[in-house]
Amino acid sequence: MARRYDREDAKRRILSVCVKLFIERGYEKTTTAEILEKADVTNGTFYNIFSTKNGVLIELTNFVFGHQFEMARNVVGKDADPVLLYAVETAIQLTMTELSNNMRELYVESYSFAETSEYIYQNTSEKLKFIFREFMPEATDRDFYELDIASAGITRGYMAKPCDRDFTMEQKLIRYIRCCMVLYNVPEDRIAQ
Known about the structure:
- By secondary structure, the protein is an all-alpha fold.
- It has ten helices and no strands.
- The model has no long low-confidence stretch (mean pLDDT 90).
């Protein structure tokens, strides 16, 4: 029988279990009943914190995309060229999807579900404005938001297609980064860097 925990402890336990189950079994194959059992929480506790399994996905997406550029900054250094930072950040995401089909499903679901994709657009468009403003000085906040919808579609497409012997990870990254850099008017010499 599930025990009650304080809200923060229950939330932490649920998120930990969900990360493990989503990676091991996949988002779609993980049931709420499994989450409740493994997190040792009641139905009421789960639904008071997250409302639905999609609520967990929203929370995880907010965490990952809220910290994505900091993670990339740890790789390239805090004073790195913002365009390089963007390339590394997106390369990390694409590489993560190649680790397992369940990881791919989780990322693709995040880019597909209305609430999580809207969070991605809102959160990322601000960062994109900072990174690409020099190449698009006349662009408005709305322009960057709309361009992020386009680049997110490119991201989702490349994430959904697994690498194989004819479409290697290196080819995927080169094509993907080039598509996005062209979208944001990055000059050829900067793309080559």
